[in-house]
Amino acid sequence: MDLVTHCGLSRHSAPYAWRLLATALSFALFGAGGVLLRLLVFPLLALLPGDALVHRRRARATVSRAFRLFVQFMFRTGVLTYEVEGVERLGRPGQMIIANHPSLIDVVVLIAFIRDANCVVKQSLWDNPCMRGPIRAAGYISNSGSLDMLDEAAAALQGGQTLIVFPEGTRTTPGQPPEFHRGAAAIAVRGARIVTPVVISVTPTTLTKAEPWYSIPSRRFHFRLRVGQDIDPQQFLGPHPVASRRLNEHLHQHFIKELAEDERSAHRD
User: Fold this and answer.
1) Residue 114 and residue 91: Cα distance in Å, rounded?
2) Alpha carbons 91 and 198: distance in angstroms, whole number
3) What Cα–Cα distance (Å) separates residue 260 from each residue in 181, 200, 257, 267?
4) CA–CA distance, 179 with 101 (Å, rounded to integer)
5) Are 196 and 90 in contact (CB under 8 A)?
6) Which has the closest alpha carbon to 255: 63, 98, 132?
7) Which segments cross the bilayer (predicted)?
8) Is the model's pTM score more than 0.70?
9) Would you say 87 and 227 are in contact if contact means Cβ atoms under 8 Å apart?
10) Which of 69, 124, 189, 192 could form a Cys-Cys staple with 96, CB 3.0–4.6 A?
11) Do residues 228 and 197 touch, judged by C-beta distance below 8 A?
């Protein structure tokens, strides 16, 4: 199993004031980078030769690289450490990646390690001045909650794309187990060749739904991403509503078990 890990330059966390400043710089950089991509980088990339598929792949590779640099910036400035297990199994044709959603940067870290991935994103981000450029250039799917969205996502998988979905739809409430909506499972049974669960844990918790960005923890946080074993969605037999309900329950129990193990490991450490 491939392991990408950056656990820090030393055992000691950077001072609180520095990490607060570095966090502010990180988000300022993220916003400015999104605007720069929209106004300068993607218009230049659009001038290069190639059909729509080539342009889309080029845009997604650019977003992935930009997100990788962002994660490295947060690491180098002492905001976080990170660990990614099983990264070599991400990015396969027709693969649906299902992840829990504990923090604001979950999708950033995932896309940073997948060069050509599609993603279901919140509808509100389509009009965000910092995010709309990368989202539209990369051809991500809007989470409008409509049947058209389900069909579009399933078609992307059937066409051989890798698709990232967060079944919770929003960040997990700290201290609560994840609650999965059935839409992700419905997409999987319609179009996925394989489903790969990715368990994300953030210790100590930060950048959650209940916290502003400046409410940083007392020490730099550790971001852990673990790629689980593949699931064949066709093993959940039955009409689509029945199959999606069975798959959703299977995934829900898997994540509850794995997150509980992560919490026990964190306490032991």
Assistant:
1) 6
2) 12
3) 20, 12, 5, 11
4) 10
5) yes
6) 98
7) 20-48
8) yes
9) yes
10) 192
11) yes
Which domains, from first to last, does the chain contain? 3-268 (3.40.1130)
pLDDT one-digit tens code per residue, 169-193: 888 888 788 889 889 999 999 999 9
Three-class DSSP category at 65: helix
Tokens of 221: 């946080």
Cα 155–88–202 angle (5° rounding)? 90
User: Is 80 exceeded by the pLDDT of residue 2?
Assistant: no
Alpha-carbon distance 119 to 184, whole Å? 12
- What token pair was written down for 77? 């400035």
pLDDT digits (tens, 9 = 90+) for 134-163: 999 999 999 876 778 999 999 999 999 999
Encode 41-69: b = buried (16+ Cβ within 10 Å), e = exposed.
bbeebeeeeeeeeebbebbbebbbebbbe
Number of Cβ within 10 Å of residue 250's Cβ equals: 17
